[in-house]
Design brief:
The termini are far apart. This protein is an alpha/beta fold and 139 residues long. The strands form 3 sheets. Strands 6-5-4-7-8 form a 5-stranded mixed beta sheet, with helices on one face. A two-stranded antiparallel ribbon has the order 1-2. Strands 3-9 form a two-stranded parallel sheet. It is elongated and about 85 Å long. The longest helix is centred in the first third of the chain and has 23 residues, at 20-42. 32% of the residues lie in helices and 20% in strands. The protein folds into 2 domains: 2-42, no CATH class; 50-134, Nucleotidyltransferase, domain 5. Strand 5 (73-75) and strand 6 (78-79) form a beta hairpin.
Length: 139
Amino acid sequence: MAFTNPQGRTSTSLSEINVTPLVDVMLVLLVIFMVTAPMLQTGIDVELPETRNVQDVNPEERIIISISRQGDIFYGSEAVNFSTIPERLRKDARGPKDAIFLRADKDVKWNSIVSVIDAVRGAGFSEIKLVTKPFRAPR
């Protein structure tokens, strides 16, 4: 495409894309995602009890039910009603032999934990694993 300047001369347009603003925007987005990604992975703030025997578990593709200190129940990172747990498990699990991971705050009443375990077993899942963190001796 050609343009005519006020002197009557023809000049061509600049056909190259300036990449600097695109790189700036991409770097800002990268920083934003790097900051927010750990928050999305941790999900619910739960102070886990400490035990001496802890196995490392990859949380991806796992069904995790969390109970917060206030007694709120979360399926993954979504707050759920207690009565919907069996329905969600049947929909999301590959089979009844899938392990269901239960994260509960160390200050949660035992009654809440037992009720969730009972709901999971009522849905036909028998392998329930309790998530803990490694024991650290006081200094």
